[in-house]
Every structure is written in C-alpha cells, then in structure tokens.
Design a protein that fits this description.
By secondary structure, the protein is of the alpha/beta class. It is globular and about 85 Å long. Helix 8 (209-230) crosses helix 12 (315-329). The chain has a 7-stranded parallel β-sheet, sandwiched between helices. The chain is built from 12 helices and 7 strands.
Length: 332
C-alpha cells in the first residue's frame, strides 16, 4: 500500500512540475489526431451490390485504382484491370481476388500513351464482354519530364486526357447498351489552377511539369462536363472527382527532384495524408452510390459534390477541348 502511495505521489509531483509540457503534448496529439481524421476525408457508405455487372478500371494495379477494384469486386462485379505492366497487373489481380473473395477479376493490357493500344483494348473488350456498367478512368501520370507519347503528344495531356477520351468514346455503345451505366473520371484539385493552352496544347514553347499536370486535370473535368451533355437521355451518367492527397506512386517523378532536406521535412507529414483505401472512397462513391443515379456532369470530393473551378465550368472551352481532342485522336 505504501509503495502504491509513493508511486502516486511521485506521479502527482511529476505532473505538477511538467504541467505546461504535458498540456502541450496533449493538445498537439489531439490536434494531430483531428488533422489525420480530417485529411482522411469521407467514406462511401453505400451497400450497393454489383452482381452481374462489369467494371473496367484503368491503372488498377496499384494505389487507389487497386483499392477501388478490391471494393467493387467485393460487391460482386466482374472487374477488368486495364494496365500497362502485365506482370504487376497479374500480381495485383491475384491480390484483389484474395482480398475480395471474388475470382471474376481479369487483366487486359492498356498503354494510354499509345492510341493503338487503346484501340486494341476496345476491340478486345467489345469481343469478350456483353456489357460494361462502370468505366473508371483512373490511370495517370504526374509531373514527369517533357516526354512524348507514342503518337507525339505531350505525355501528361496524352495519358491523363487523350487516352481516356478515346477509350471512353470508343466504349460508349457498350455503356449505352448496359444503361443505367456510369463513367467516372479521376481528376484533381490541381485543376483549380489549370488552364487549357489551346494555342500550345502540347506545351512545346513553354513546358513546365506542374503547368502540364494542371492542364491535364482541368481537361478531365471539362471532358466530363461535355460528355455528360452529349449523353443526356441515354442512361449513361458522368462524374469527375478529386480523390485527395494520397500516399501512392503517382508522385514518383517529382519526389527525386526535391532537395534532401525538404524530403526529410516532408516525411513525417506523409503520415497525415490519405492511404490508398481512403483515397479510393470518392471514386467508389461516384461509381455505386444510389443517390447519384440521376445526377451527371458534376465534380466531387470527399464523397460529396464540390464546386469546380470557374474555368472548369466553361461550356465554350469544354466544347472547344472536345473538338480538338477528337481531331487529335482521329475521331473527328
């Protein structure tokens, strides 16, 4: 008993002597927990089943694409992983089958930096699939050097926008046949500072990785807006979204260019940003939530509607981008 009293007294004395420090630690810890929960964002609460439905997800071998595939496969969907690296895609497919308990997960090759690869996938899908209920344009590249696609387009605009533009338009007949169906385009908050450089769409005169990325993400939102208008009355609805700041491979091109001391400072902050599972929630929400069935063309973040930037609501720019994109990919 005396030992317990002595420990209690010592603890009480310690608290009195370090009250300010302990209060700081408590407040800081509480703040960090609150910040982490806020950064995690919303969670898709829909229990919708997808039995008998087919979903195609680009770039589904890693990050939020893979987490989206796990979720939708868990709801009973047939899930097609459209990926560039077949080795990684097959390993991801094995993991998705195990985690979801659904063996109906297939892999098909897609290199969005090649229009021929996009067209080959379309031929494959039309030959092998009777329906397509959900198309999720998830794959992307972020802030890479000044690279070109196989067809000579600036890489970020080519992969993030043009490849998905061609893929979506080429699968519209199958989506309409399967209606009600959905197209989900993964964009980014980066669109808010984006501009479509119509006079230099490939940024040949003034390339900057961030400028290019912002343009491509704005293109995603404008494409969704114009696509939704063209699909009115078909039963095909369209959604664009910001998934959040996430711990994925997307930033692999920019990370090595950051000074070491900055990386050391950023590392602790990485614990606060979204996991791939958290980052996938808004994509899943747009793909399955029943309340969105009659809504189309809007932009979402944290499992709810969000006002897109003014330049993303410009119908004239959206139509102009559509016409230029169609010409570039040979759909005009």
């Amino acid at each position: 008993m005396s030992n317990s009293m002595e420990v209690y007294s010592q603890a009480k004395e310690f608290v009195k002597e370090h009250a300010t420090g302990l209060a700081f630690v408590f407040i800081a810890g509480t703040g960090l927990i609150a910040t982490r929960r806020w950064m995690a964002g919303g969670v898709c609460r829909s229990k919708a089943r997808l039995d008998g439905k087919t979903v195609l997800i680009t770039g589904a071998n890693t990050g939020i694409g893979k987490e989206t595939a796990v979720d939708l496969a868990g709801r009973g969907a047939r899930v097609i992983l459209a990926c560039r690296d077949m080795g990684r895609a097959n390993r991801a497919a094995d993991e998705i089958r195990k985690r979801s308990g659904n063996g109906n997960v297939v892999v098909k090759q897609l290199d969005l930096a090649s229009l021929q690869s996009v067209r080959a996938l379309v031929v494959d899908v039309k030959a092998s699939e009777d329906r397509l209920d959900i198309l999720i344009n998830n794959a992307g590249i972020m802030m890479c050097p000044k690279w070109q696609t196989v067809d000579g387009f600036e890489m970020q605009f080519g992969v993030n926008h043009l490849g998905h533009f061609l893929l979506t338009n080429s699968l519209l007949d199958l989506l309409k046949k399967s209606s009600p169906s959905r197209v989900v385009n993964v964009s980014s908050l980066a669109h808010e500072k984006g501009e479509i450089h119509f006079d230099d769409i490939n940024l040949d005169r003034d390339y900057d990785p961030m400028k290019s990325y912002r343009q491509s993400k704005l293109a995603n939102v404008l494409f969704s807006r114009e696509l939704s208008k063209s699909l009115e009355g078909t039963g095909v609805t369209v959604y664009s979204l910001h998934p959040g700041v996430i711990r994925t491979e997307l930033g692999r091109h920019i990370w090595p260019t950051i000074a070491l001391w900055k990386r050391l400072l950023f590392n602790p902050l990485m614990l606060l940003i979204k996991s791939p599972w958290e980052g996938a929630q808004t994509t899943i929400y747009c793909a399955v939530d029943e309340t969105l069935q009659n809504t189309s063309g809007l932009y979402y973040s944290d499992c709810g509607p969000k006002q897109a930037a003014p330049q993303a609501c410009d119908d004239v720019a959206a139509k102009k981008l559509w016409d230029i994109s169609a010409s570039m990919v040979g759909l005009a």
